[in-house]
């Protein structure tokens, strides 16, 4: 008889227990188990903080799945889709080909993802704390900051390097704050230019108590111990944005620091999102035996599942403790079904909670008993040591921990060159991205928002806006190619998201890709030249408000929902051929002119026939790139001219103000040119005019 094929998606606490239990109870000839996981190891999350704090080695908290699961076919591949109707999964095999595989039973145990997108700027500037690479990069970052603090002569910069901000004071936030604090403070004796007192580790938490999950006296103990160890508590405080500078708090203050760790925010895994099954807050609803509601051969366990615990009729907590028990019991229930026996509902009494707070201190709630301090810390280490999935791991971690008690923590790190990196950055309105005179470090492309280019008058210290850049524009290339400091400052006009290429990587790309180099050289000549090309008109235009040049708004305003067919008709009816597209709040969303039409058609022509569909019914929201360049009524006519010259365009939409981007009219280049010519002619002496 063909063996039963059971496919397991995930390789965490739940999936491993499931596969282990099933394998130990059913012979290989009767049941084939295939386990798909994105990585070839299981991550032991409770030890991630120790990895970041360098108290254990990286590999001690990651256990190779195939060594842990003999008799299970382990595949390091990402499952793309589950087709519950045909009982098939789809995954990209090693050659990149989409492959389908039939199953008799499938277990979904793909956990949850971290989601830094909940706070603007976090995904660009903060470390998440969920997977092994998060802990490894964080450890490198911490040591790199100490090296930078040692090297710099600027006391403000040194302070910034030695400030570490942790957002969220649940278990992982508390543990990682404790570990960072321990690593940095215990290492200061190896540095000459800073001391323990210079280190600031801040824990930002929206509630009035840390560790809301544990008993009040344990919380209080944890807070006092952490404060005594030097950690600054920022309670009843929310992080509202993160930037290169640090974290903006809800009271308007900016907490400056080079390292931000965000331990809040989870998202549902994409594979679960795409499943059309009953869900509760994104998690898959299951029956008491843990089959997906409405399915006979599909199961869900762990953080991605919503399971009611028969012990207290409450939803099972998304913790490793529960995930393991769910995995084990789901395997036993599957065997019962195959044997024609009755299944049992998930039933588990939580054993307790353990949390290390740093400095050989912890809090523990075990079977109703509360313990805190060194004894709790010993319990914490003992419990997790024996929870580790294999004896080799246990010995490894035990040796690392003993080493950590006797010897200083390891301060070596792989010096990943930041000038070689492709990164992202977020800036709030008003933030400077770089200042005139600073050395060039990155080449930036605007992904979202607008920036203004500012230049200092050579004679005075006045700074004036000389142009506006928007989505798709770039800056920094002139200083990088010329190997000189920035000749202008760049300031965010709105919230701005950038893609940034480090100077060394930029030099390699610009040096080897001829088309890109040519484009950059053209941009440099155009950008650096525009105010030099306007020596006479600059003083004339600088003092001029653009209100006197304004053309009225077009008779017909388009919206994001306008169809392509209607947009073409509107263009035909418009004499000037310049139209504006508004969003649902009547704010400027984009622009459309005849040039855009050709580009849209060209873009559609290169997409597949399947995606083209009926072009005329496509909406502008799907065809146009939003966030076009615009200027505000408060800008001068010089800024408008420079912006048009810089972008090679002949008209601009004008909005009410930078903060209120509702359109009020249009500005045409020819109108400004005409006025400048008139003024210049009037300014010339009569004989010059006659001669001219
Ligand atoms: C820093 C930290 C500390 C923690 N400390 C504790 C603690 O002390 N005690 C405790 O009980 N709990 C703790 N937890 C919570 C615990 O780790 C989770 O509840 C537990 O890991 C959930 O197990 P799981 O099997 O559902 O998912 P996970 O362990 O997250 O495993 C999911 C796996 O599925 C894989 N995967 C996802 N999508 C796909 C796909 N499409 N194809 C293939 N593979 C896929 C992922 O790569 C991952 O390996 C902690 C969590 C964190 C982040």
Description of the molecule:
There is one protein chain. With 692 residues, this protein is α/β, with parallel strands linked by helices. Helix content is 34%, strand content 26%. The protein is built from 23 helices and 41 strands. The strands form 13 sheets. The protein has a five-stranded parallel beta sheet, with helices on one face. Strands 13-12-11-17 form a four-stranded parallel beta sheet. A four-stranded antiparallel beta sheet has the order 28-35-30-33. Strand 26 and strand 27 form a beta hairpin. Helix 1 packs parallel to helix 10. The protein is globular and about 100 Å long. It binds flavin-adenine dinucleotide (FAD).
Q: Compute the number of strand runs.
A: 41
What's the story with the biggest beta sheet?
A: 5 strands, parallel
Mean pLDDT: 88
As a percent range, the share of helical residues equals 25-40%
Give the helix/strand layout.
Elements: E1 4-9, H1 13-25, E2 31-37, E3 41-43, H2 48-52, E4 62-64, H3 65-68, E5 73-76, E6 79-83, E7 88-92, E8 98-102, E9 105-108, E10 112-114, H4 122-125, H5 132-151, H6 155-161, E11 163-167, H7 171-187, E12 200-204, H8 216-228, E13 231-234, E14 239-242, E15 246-249, E16 254-256, E17 259-262, E18 266-268, H9 270-273, E19 279-280, E20 283-285, E21 298-300, E22 305-306, E23 308-309, E24 314-315, H10 320-338, E25 352-358, E26 361-366, E27 369-373, H11 374-387, H12 391-406, E28 422-427, E29 432-434, E30 442-448, E31 451-456, E32 463-469, E33 474-475, H13 477-482, E34 489-492, E35 496-502, H14 503-512, H15 514-529, H16 537-542, E36 558-559, H17 564-573, E37 578-582, E38 588-593, H18 594-605, H19 609-612, H20 620-623, E39 631-632, H21 637-647, E40 651-655, E41 663-668, H22 669-683, H23 686-691
Parallel strand pairs: 1-2, 1-9, 2-5, 9-21, 11-12, 11-17, 12-13, 20-22, 36-37, 39-40
Antiparallel strand pairs: 3-4, 6-7, 7-8, 10-18, 14-15, 15-16, 19-20, 23-24, 25-26, 26-27, 28-35, 29-34, 30-33, 30-35, 31-32, 31-34, 37-38, 40-41
